[in-house]
Amino acid sequence: MAKSSNKKSATEKMSPKERERLEKAKQQLQAKRKKAQKARTTRNITIGVIVVAALVAIGLIGGVLWSKKSSSKAGGASYSQSVKSNKGIVLSKDGVGKRVKGLPNVELYSDYVCVHCLDLEQAIGHDLVQAAKDGKINLIFKPVVTMSSHYSWGFPAATAALQVASKQPQKFVDLHFALTDQVLKDAKEGRAESSLTSIEEGKKEVAQVAKEQGIDQAVIDSFDVDKTKDTLQAWTKDWVNSGLTDKKSYGTPMLVRDGKVIQAKSFKDMLEQATK
């Protein structure tokens, strides 16, 4: 099993009252997303697939997979060869973008604005990363689209992650956790409605997070949300057609070890199965 990280998550630093407010904010955010999702069906946005999280047994429900009518091609975004060939971001003991032969491959399918993906990151995200750094696994971050509000904040966040992994890989892990912490911070401060439902606010906030993490301005300037949108929709289509499960629905968070979906009753159990 991976060693626990000494780094405290954003939620661990909160007081009980702050955690209670955060949980209420999450619930309110989910309710607003569901309401917005229904409204979008009248504006030519197609609801693609209702996805159910892999951890139904413990109520970890993911988002609603949506897609606009778009090309199945990857949109020509400028990513590293590793990102393109893996359709995601590889992390191993050798660094970002470097898969180590002979190690188990653990794929994490997630969405930056999926509430339960954030729960997973807070619970075992640092431990999964540490397991990769310790040479126990190759960890592959597989961003997919499972939230109808993804265009406003999730796409900018995924854009930043993919571009930084491609062009400034040594900064990827810090940026990844900074992005997940930012969503939680927005919810805690009651700002989730503006930052997660406005594309311009989402772009500005993600750029600011990247700047605070020391990402080069040239890399930030290369963030292209439209091209990332096409890429992620293509990757998501590949995912739901992958045959990873015999079910018709796919959901996030999903952990897959060497081609087999991890079925678990808790995040701790997921971690143990992923890093054994």
Q: Structural class from helices and strands?
A: alpha+beta
Shape: globular
| Number of extended strands | 8
Give the proportion of residues in helices.
40-55%
Low-pLDDT windows of residues: 1-5, 36-76
The third-level CATH topology of the largest domain is: Glutaredoxin
The number of distinct structural domains comes to: 2
Largest sheet: 6 strands, mixed
Strand content: 5-15%
Gyration radius (Cα, Å) is 17 Å
Looking at the overall shape, the CATH architecture of the largest domain is 3-Layer(aba) Sandwich
**CATH superfamily descriptor of the largest domain:** Glutaredoxin
Rounded to the nearest angstrom, the distance between the terminal CA atoms is 5 Å
What would the average pLDDT be, to the nearest integer?
79
User: What's the helix count?
Assistant: 10
Strand order within the widest beta sheet: 4-3-6-5-7-8
N-to-C SSE string, H for helix and E for strand = HEEHEEEHEHHHHHHEEH
**CATH level-1 class of the largest domain:** Alpha Beta
